[in-house]
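ok so i was messing around last nite and threw this chain in just to see what happens. nothing serious, just curious
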Amino acid sequence: MTPPPEPPSGRLYVGWQYAMLHADPGPPPRRPVPPRRDDMSAAWLAAQRREENLLDRPLKRAGLITAVVAAAMIAVLAGGWVPAFIAAPLLAASVAAGGLSGYAIWRGERALAQRIAAERRRVERFRADQESRLFATQEEHARQVKDWQARRYAFESQKRWYAVPLPAGVDRVDVAGGTLAGWSALVTMAGAYGLAAGGELTVLDLSGGAVAADLIAVASGTGVEPAVWVLPKDLPRLDLTASLDAEALADVLALAAGADEERGAGRDLAVDVSILERVLAVLGDDIHMGRVAAALRVLAEVGDPRADLASGLLTVRETSELSTLFGKGAADRVVLERALALEAQLRKLAAAASGLVRLPRRRLRVIALNKRLGSANAKVLGNFVVTALTHVLSSAPPAAQPWRHTLFVLGAERLRDDVLDRLTDMCETSRTGLVLAYRSLPPRVRQRIGRGNAAVAFMRLGNAEDAKAASEQIGTEHRFVLSQLTETVGTSVTDTTGASYTSTVGGSASLGTSKSVSDSVSRGTSHGRSAESSFLPFAGSSTSRGADSSTSAGTSDTASVTAGISASTAWGLSTSEATSGSESLARSVQRSREFLVEASELQRLPPTAMIISYATAAGRQVFMADANPAIGSLDAATIMPLAEAARLRATGPAETLEPNLGPPAARLDWRRR
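result:
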């Protein structure tokens, strides 16, 4: 069999679209019933005989009388009872009358035979015409049956699930709503095909629900070794700020410290950046978060600076310069208050980059927040990581292809507005694909959903107000068809993935790999601001597939991808169960129900169902899709988009309408080079 094609690079696959290009042909054509055989009517023939007998009866009587008279005359002549001149004329007259009667009877019989023969010829011609029409009907029926068989085969063997890639020109995907299980399906779907095409992914999980755990498991089983940081534990080994200069670092820390403050507090942000820039100038080149927090304590006159001097965080010179950095005056109180606020927030980042580990290049990077982390700390860490990533993107050249590198931010509603806007702009400039997922839709989020060249994926929205706003944005006039498989699997998948992250950059063993990186590697290695960040190439030039140094040459067993999805994920197990039996399989490929876009319908969408909307030159496209990656293991699924399949069906030969691309698991051509 011809190897199935790989997913095209530079495209993001977000799910599967259910459609049936070939309609059900219905029952087979009915076989034509032969008409009743039309023979000559026996009743008509008897009636003709009866009519002829009635007409011949006087003639027959006359013939009988003449025969009797003729016999009598012959007897009289023979006996000499009557003179011959008298009997001979009578005999001649009798014979003549008998002859005339017989002739008339013969003519009647002849006419009757002609009528019977004509009727027989008419019946034979009618019968031949019936047979001719029957043969033509049977030939037409045979042609209809052959056409029905072709349409039936096309209906039964057609693909019902088509991959949904984002069209060219879309720079961002805004995911509105959704459950943890739905996000897990979406991240695994998009990430698996992105990695299969040789792309790179960075996942920032602020949800605390281990959304990317399934993607990590699938990638690890196919030779793509992930790099996972679980914050705050792995803050010492997170090297996002390793390549930032003092100005960029001050901006990152100011935005992180202001995560809980009112949005748009530009004056406070400017003051914070000014304070931090001056503090970083005093600290010189030896900068890490612990020294920054200690410097802010000196500036805010909090605690005893001798403790920081004793621990080696600050020197006497630095302490002296910090004490007189702003002098005494009207602004002193403002500086003290802002320095105290900065120290209160940035002390949570004191361990950042303090124990860096030089990691090999990884195509899959996951930064996640511990689910036990408090809301305030989660906001600080989230804004810190996103702002630092934004600066990393700004220092790299644009990618060679859009969506070659993809950044997922899950739980983006926790970020500041200006942090989100800057990240969005920088991803667009660097041609980095961006997926922003929001659990809730407060007013500030609604203003940003779909802005610019973005596609919007509406998933389940539990909040009535959010669902109402989403239905109004989609348009309540749209009618969608929900697949039975989507609804069946949705009833089996819970709202949580039930998994957790395991760090691969700390002392614990990495997920699915034979190598681990221990903290001891970093003990004798010094890293300053000039050190290269492992995230720096993220937005740079595209790298060849399999750039991980930990992978070996050869081709991975693609069947393990299907096995991993089917056996280790909730939606994979549910999909396998839904399609395990013939009866269930028949139901799973059928449509379940139609619904209009209303708030109540958005509140009860299956976890993996989503309504995708984006603008095109032909108008806004709105359709239903399913993010369940396990659909790719079905024989009824193809990586070909629906529009392309419909175009081939309309213009191509019949054998090209449903190309056999093989199971999508085989199309995830993970290679080790």
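not much to say yet. The first strand starts at residue 13 and ends at 18.
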